[in-house]
UniProtKB/TrEMBL annotation:
Source species, domain of life: Bacteria
GO molecular function: hydrolase activity, acting on carbon-nitrogen (but not peptide) bonds
UniProt domain Amidohydrolase: residue ranges: 51-517
Name assigned to this protein: Amidohydrolase 3 domain-containing protein
Lineage: Bacteria, Bacillati, Actinomycetota, Coriobacteriia, Coriobacteriales
One Pfam family from the record: Amidohydro_3
Length: 519
């Protein structure tokens, strides 16, 4: 390990140990923080330093931790024939043929950015005629729907109406081994580093279909610039504890680790698929006899898995969007192993929490629960496009408990931040705008009483994420002795009105003491 020294000077250093930034310095030696202190004590560190960066009033903080990412989804939007300029079925067939022609080893043909106007029977018929035995899938922009031939339907088992990540796992087995996919991990890390992200919790379906070998190779070769905590998401089969034990034993390095499982429960309130405590008022469940959710989550399976996972010493993150799903998950956690102080022995978490009851959040906080939220989520929609539907379905009173990060913090939960990448790409400015200001994409706000402060949000992106990854002794705060994972923003974010925060950018990212990104 190099003994190189780097000193960062700034009038806005946020260590995460208090709410206020200060004028000071950070001295880095090799891959660790050697000392941190006020500006008046920096002189001794400056003499003999290999590099000194005076950052003015730009905020310096620990590196961001994104606790919910999907490389499998991100890369799927970047491989395959680009169909964005195709104007006819013939154009699509030709573009797919060119892509497949130079990838003889690929067991399928893939396309992306298919214009929705070309979807339909004519295209499907043409794909069947041209590719009778080779599976072909052409996704629209954002992979929200697709066209696929009979061979693909047979091999992969999903449909254009349900081609989201949990449904296309069989396709992942075919595209993850491609060399271009493995090479794309370089671009993935560059993108994350450019957003100040230095660690992630990566959702890896089942046993990751051989891609864990790529993670092992990259760590061994020293190629990683993002710390990765892998979580198995059971989709092809149930939670595989034998695999989890072998992965935990295999991955114990500074950059790659394995810690547990992730699973969906319900889905969005806005589309009527969230499990609510009370019945939907109208909308999707208007004639459903008072049901609280259209698609019943597999609660019996989830309860059995949670018990087994907890007993084996792993953690489980459950993706809950409705207050009913949150309540059932908290109820289940109450029956798990607790320590003498009443905290969960294993760090189980709830992800998303689109709508939640503050009383359940307080119960979860009392047992040391972790809430993994999407702080940028409001930036996807205009206010009334989102709220009008939710208001009709669950009413104004329950709507007021949506995106309630304030109750999570006040209830004692550990708050941390994810993006569900590629749904969102990490962006601290958008996070401040949405989670601190409560603003939608059109600048209109919702539930300002549920917002958090800038300091609380930065702490969630850093210390909260480190705790979620069980790495709070290594990263997450700026302290002497910790690994030097640091993010520098392009201004003093504590002087920014949340409504004006969306253009905040990352100036510099340091991982393991090395500058891995500079604007």
């Amino acid at each position: 390990m190099s003994d190189r020294t780097l000193v960062l000077l700034s009038r806005s250093i946020f260590t995460g140990l208090s709410d206020d930034p200060f004028d000071g310095y950070i001295a880095i030696r090799g891959n660790r923080i050697e000392s941190v202190g006020p500006a008046g004590q920096a002189e001794a560190c400056l003499h003999g330093a290999d590099e000194v960066r005076d950052l003015g009033s730009k905020t310096v903080m620990a590196g961001l931790v994104d606790v919910h990412t999907f490389f499998t989804g991100w890369v799927l939007r970047r491989i395959g024939a680009d169909l964005s300029d195709t104007a006819s079925v013939e154009d699509v067939i030709e573009a797919l043929a060119q892509w497949k022609g130079i990838r003889q080893q690929a067991p399928m043909a893939l396309g992306m950015n298919l214009p929705e106007a070309l979807l339909g029977e004519e295209l499907v018929t043409a794909l069947d005629e041209r590719y009778s035995s080779t599976p072909v899938v052409a996704f629209t922009n954002g992979a929200e729907t697709c066209a696929l031939n009979a061979a693909a339907s047979s091999r992969y088992g999903f449909t254009p109406d349900a081609c989201y990540a949990e449904k296309i796992w069989r396709l992942m087995r075919d595209y993850l081994p491609l060399q271009e996919v493995r090479d794309a991990y370089d671009d993935y890390m560059v993108m994350l580093n450019s957003r100040g992200v230095t660690a992630i919790k990566e959702m890896c379906f089942d046993d990751y279909y051989g891609f864990a070998d790529e993670m092992a190779r990259r760590e061994q070769e020293g190629e990683l610039t993002v710390r990765i905590d892998m979580m198995s998401q059971p989709v092809g089969y149930g939670a595989d504890l034998d695999y989890a034990c072998s992965a935990r034993d295999r991955f114990q390095g500074d950059f790659v680790r394995f810690s547990g499982f992730n699973r969906m429960t319900d889905r969005g309130v806005w589309c009527g698929l969230a499990e609510m405590i009370e019945p939907y008022e109208d909308g999707a469940d208007a004639g459903a006899g008072g049901k609280t959710v259209v698609e019943e989550p597999e609660w019996d399976l989830i309860a059995r898995e949670l018990t087994a996972i907890d007993k084996a010493g792993f953690r489980y993150s459950l993706h809950c969007q409705g207050d009913g799903a949150v309540r059932k998950t908290v109820d289940m956690c109450e029956g798990l192993a607790h320590d003498e102080s009443g905290k969960l022995v294993n760090r189980h978490s709830i992800t998303d929490l689109e709508n939640s009851d503050p009383a359940d959040l307080a119960r979860f906080g009392a047992m040391g629960g972790i809430c993994e939220v999407y702080p940028q989520i409001l930036t996807l929609d205009a206010r009334e496009d989102c709220l009008a539907m939710m208001r009709r379905q669950i009413g104004e009173a329950r709507l007021s408990r949506s995106w309630n990060r304030r109750a999570m913090v006040d209830g004692g939960c550990t708050l941390c931040c994810g993006t569900d990448l590629p749904l969102l790409i990490p962006h601290l400015g958008d996070s401040i705008y949405s989670a601190c200001g409560g603003y939608f994409a059109d600048g209109l706000e919702v539930n300002p009483q549920n917002a958090v402060s800038i300091a609380e949000l930065l702490r969630a992106w850093t210390a909260g994420g480190a705790y979620d990854l069980q790495r709070e002794d290594d990263i997450g705060t700026i302290e002497a002795g910790k690994l030097a994972d640091i993010c520098v923003l392009d201004r003093d974010v504590f002087a920014v009105d949340p409504k004006e925060a969306r253009d905040i950018k990352v100036e510099l990212t340091v991982v393991d003491g090395r500058i891995v990104y500079e604007s």
